[in-house]
Amino acid sequence: MVRPMKTSTIVMSAALASLLYSVPAVAQEDAPEEIPAHLRVEEAPPALRTEQATRDPFHEQLALAANPQVPPAEAQQVFDELVSRGAMAIPTLARVYADPRSGDQENWVAARALGRIGGEPARRSLQGGLRSQRIITRLGAVSGLSIIGSADSVPDLEKALFDKAMTVRAASADALALIGNRKSSIALSKALNLPANFHRGKSHFVRIHIIEALGEIGSIGGIEVLVGVLGEREQSIQIAATVALEMITGTSFKTIGASRDTPPTASEVAQWRTWWAQRSVGEIAE
Fold first, then answer.
1. Domain enclosing residue 212, as ranges
2. pLDDT on residue 261
3. Cα 58–Cα 61–Cα 66 angle in degrees, nearest 5
4. Is residue 139 in some structural domain?
5. Which of 126, 148, 170 is at the close of a domain?
6. Could you tell me if 71 and 122 lie in one domain?
7. Helix axes 135-148, 120-129, angle to 10 degrees
8. Residue 279 — pLDDT band, cuts 50, 70, 90?
9. Which partner from 25, 93, 208, 285 sits 20 to 30 angstroms from 129, CA to CA?
10. Is the dihedral of CA 96, 102, 106, 111 positive or negative?
11. b/e map 75-110, b = 16+ CB within 10 Å
């Protein structure tokens, strides 16, 4: 049997339901909350600036390829992947390469990567590196430009034959040999006997590089200076000059069976001098 609820109980239940399910008047009208006077400000605070973290995947690859702690095979793989990005990677590589604060290893790898990617933007970036105060940057420029192999780089590489650093001078001779512009024999000939390429009367290694470059280029413009050094006392210079002359002219005065790695005899030197004296530049076809 259900007992009827008392009137007082019904009234209380209705009042409770009203409190649980009714929306407060402030929420209904969306009225602004009253701010205490001591917390009020005259104007809104400025918006906070949000800094977005930047991530350069090309720089990450460059850093990994240049890290001496990374195994060579892995570093080479990363380097090849970086180069495969092509023109997209050039802005990062050029920035790191031109940055005077970059580490030597990163600087060098960036130059090599620019050379491998090639193209005019990369070539211009490397060309600018020849004016750097850092030897590693200038050396990287020569290396990268030799990889690109553009004739447009020849004038700058010829100037680098007179660089303050021996390593840059030697590398420039090698680069010119690879490009193979015959007119470079003029600059190479002038650079061969620079006082800076000697120490206490003995040749620095730079001279061997220049002599070999003259032979590789194969221009008659290098014959006179090569004949001139045949009489020097250093056997390595004599041998290199003889080999270069043979490459340029297709002529040899060695006796049959004589090794190419032996210095020229006095008779051989005399024959080269006579041979050159009897010819003018115009009589020898390039």
1. 181-281
2. 86
3. 125
4. yes
5. 148
6. yes
7. 150
8. confident
9. 208
10. positive
11. beebbeebbebeeebbebbbebbeeeebeeebbbbb
